[in-house]
Amino acid sequence: GQPDTSRKLFDQSYRLYVRAGSGVGWDGRTLTNLHAPVGATTGYAVVSVLRAMGVPVEEELSHIANLRKLVAGRLDAYAELDNHVRPLLRSNKAEFGGIVELSPPVRITSDYLMFSKISYARAPEIAERIWNAIAEVNNSAAYRALLASDKYAD
After folding, report:
1. How does pLDDT run across 17-61, given as a tens digit for each residue?
2. Which helix (H) or strand (E) holds 10?
């Protein structure tokens, strides 16, 4: 079956980052005005998504290196998890102030707390209680207010 989204820990969004005024566009299906590759972190899930769309991808291990390649024009876009890039953009405004985030996300993934089959078989009630507690927190007004605040934006 499908996972119960009320029991997820969090969502992560892969987004595209470009130089302001570059003319690179993203409508949620197609990247336009690309003249250089799109950067992505080596081994991340977004690499296969981009390649399946026929987008040339250049992989790199370092977020900072990818952002610097973007600023230098060696990349036309950088596809990365927003919770990895947003803090870097905020804390390095002098170097990366000309980078903007495009919407919508390229991909959104939900992450869950997993138990091994053996652990679940031994004590399914414990796993269920933990998953139910996660759902309870996710559905609480206090948690929703916290997510809506700027305090934990990333």
Report:
1. 999 999 999 999 999 999 999 999 999 999 999 999 999 999 999
2. strand 10-19
